[in-house]
Amino acid sequence: MKSIIKMISMISVISITLFSCKKDEQKVVITAKNIPVLVSSNTTVSLTKDEAEEEAVNFSWDTLDYKWSDPSVSTDILTYTIQIGRSGDDFRSGMITKTTKSKSLALSVQELNKAFLDLGFLPHDTSKVDIRLNAGLAPNAPLYSNVITLTASPYELASYLYVPGAYQGWDPVTALRLQSAMSNGIYIGEINFPEADSEFKITPAPTWDISYGDAGSGKISLDASGNFKSPGAGNYRITVNTNDNTIEFELLAN
């Protein structure tokens, strides 16, 4: 089967010509009468870890108005893709894309922050991205909207907990850390305990201002005063989940 896709643009009318699989290759034309206008709820966004799951920005647009010359062969082929690129680069050196079939798309703080970092921007630097909509009727016939510039300062994606204890002299400044690579509340790290029942605490910062204590039955709590104890001597992987306040130990092979 031979398919030919051709886009003809005249003023505000865009026609895409398709050929069916019939013997005489009957021509079918899709005509788009408008290009959607992209609207953003914000053009300057504050990105913070504490609001990672909150909505950062919402994009919306009017429906693309198009019709088939032969309704009997029509299908729902329309998709909308938000494209995010470095400002002023004209989307040439890499894009972050999000696709939907609805007339709006929201990005969380965490999603937008990751987009900035994936585009090469440094944490804490005020940076700008350009955003446009591609109303796609065919892969080689993009219909681009207006471009919106959005400003934000991304935060470092990873976050840490500190593990001061007897194994290192109870100093939170020099304590080993557990890392949450996506700042999603799940922290993982490895510690080599010299002996069984080696005691330690967990702190959200390298200070003693706030600390988690052992609440029993694999639970942690900021209100608990008891120290944690290693299950044995050796190298352990420790997983702390601050979403459900749990701690787990896994003995690693030497």
TrEMBL record:
Pfam families: SusE (PF14292)
PROSITE patterns recorded: PROKAR_LIPOPROTEIN
Coiled-coil portions: none
Domain SusE outer membrane protein stretches: 23-134
InterPro entries: SusE
Entry superkingdom: Bacteria
Protein name: SusE outer membrane protein
